[in-house]
Amino acid sequence: MAVKIKLKRLGKIRAPHYRIIIADSRTRRDGRAIEEIGLYHPVQNPSRIEVDADRVAYWLGVGAQPTEPVLAILKKTGDWQKFKGEPAPAPLLQPEPKPDHSGLFEAVSAKAGDEPKGEAITQKTKKADKKDESDSSESTEG
């Protein structure tokens, strides 16, 4: 049985994400997998790549062949170079940490602390006022 390391597509039409899987070479692209060893989200900036290096090393050691897209991913993570005994590539880009919104809120509220605090809602108009306006508009027309 020939074993391949390939991508299993998930997600919506224009928002794909993939799982890196070990599967028999005769199975369909999204068919049954022997094992899932990683994730690949190409839409995020920078792309999110997570690979279980120990399992990749094991499967490459027992003869599993990566497909071309998976080979490119393994070269980016450095797992292919480690398997071949070559020098490691530059580290992957990591996304910037998201700002702490509670900290921003605290800073803005401290800055505006001496301003008067009024209600943030608009008062509703009373139904009687609306009736008076409609009555006055009818009398001016006639």
Characterization of the model:
Belongs to the bacterial ribosomal protein bS16 family. By secondary structure, this protein is of the alpha+beta class. Helices cover 36% and strands 22% of the residues. It is built from five helices and five strands.
What's the short version?
Keywords: Ribonucleoprotein, Ribosomal protein. With 142 residues, the protein is α+β, with helices and mostly antiparallel strands.
Search tags:
single chain; 142 residues; alpha+beta; Small ribosomal subunit protein bS16; Ribosomal_bS16; Ribosomal_bS16_CS
Shape: elongated
Ends apart, CA distance between termini: 93 Å
Biggest sheet, spatial arrangement of strands: 4-3-2-1-5
Rg value:
30 Å
- How many strands, which pairing sense, and closed or not: the largest β-sheet? 5 strands, mixed
The beta-strand count equals 5
**What's the average pLDDT?**
82
Strand content: 15-25%
Indicate the percent of residues in helices.
25-40%
Which structural class do the helices and strands define?
alpha+beta
* Distinct helical segment count: 5
Spell out the helices and strands N to C: EEEEHEHHHH
Low-confidence stretches: none
Organism: Streptomyces evansiae
GO biological process, one term: translation
Keywords: Ribonucleoprotein, Ribosomal protein
Family: Belongs to the bacterial ribosomal protein bS16 family.
